[in-house]
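Why does residue order matter? Because the sequence determines the fold. Keep that principle in mind as you read this record.
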Amino acid sequence: METILRPLIVVGGSVLLTLVIGWATDLLLRKADGRHPETPLWGLLRRARIPYQVALCTALLRGTYVEARVFPEHHEGVGRTLTLVLIGSAAWLVIRIAGAVVETSYSRYAHAHAQRDPARVRRVRTQVSLIRRVVSAVVGVVAVSSMLLTFPAMRTAGASLLASAGILGIVAGVAAQSTLGNLFAGLQIAFGDMVRIGDTVVVNGEWGTVEEITLTFLTVRTWDERRITMPVSYFTSKPFENWSRGTPQMTGVVYWHLDHTAPLDAMRERLRDILRGCPAWDGRAYNLTVTDTTPNTMQVRALVTAKDADDIWTVRVEVREQMIRWLTDEHPYALPRVNTSDADRRPGHDGFPHARRSPDGEVRRFPHQSRKSL
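Structure:
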């Protein structure tokens, strides 16, 4: 009877004690979260209650399983299993706590600087996300190493592993050259302020917003909601456009090909009226000039400004559409057309390129004769 009651009492007591301590800890965190709504730390720490309870229960069982005589014939196996679970749950708990602290620090910084310097907030956000990934990777490696060292065979082979660590490091470095390159490129991007989460970039002719940055890859969300995943080493080895670098303000261009008789002054006034009625225009500047001509048309360019890449696109399409509609309704002669009328003749010339006047005043035409022969 004792062989049955003792394990039940020890295991049941450990589980019950874990639930009571976990409930009390969660209650304290909820009260702290209610008293301090200005910080999300206590709410984020509540997400760690599962690994906290697992680590607590495993620690209690690990300290009492000998007295409980749970599976005495498998004494060593039970102890090693509990140790492995304890190491894993402790690593999980550390990752959750570190993530809560880092996220809280970022939230406070973003709340204080979001209005004054949004570019710096995006940079800190990128750095915070990469730091959290680095911490998770380091904790995971330490946890796996600690688990392996619980096996006697691994401790015995420790000396030989350390002796061959140099050779293995060289081999691993050569084999994982691209991975290590992306790893260091990710750190360079995070702390070199090259590109940040939320930046508007153009890579390989694709325009989009940086959605995610990890230690090895970067995801760009395009305007049509596609995702382009690229290695982070691309951004440290090849040129790319970052429209959010420094300030997100942008200047956009709108082109029209119009007839030479287009009313430029009226178009400038119409451009001003269109921009005043467009909420996306930031009011900084606008301009309309003729930038090129051809035998049949002239190229008219309008410059407009906006606060960011999304608004500049809205302003450009709005100006282009309304100007074309206005020209069609009010000045249709300004639209491009093919001239089919006769060209103006020079005085005393009848329009035939190969003609000459005879001594008696008669014009003789030679339509098939070359100019040089005349």
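Strands lie at 200-203, 206-213, 217-222, 227-231, 241-242, 250-258, 281-293, 298-306, 355-357, 363-365.
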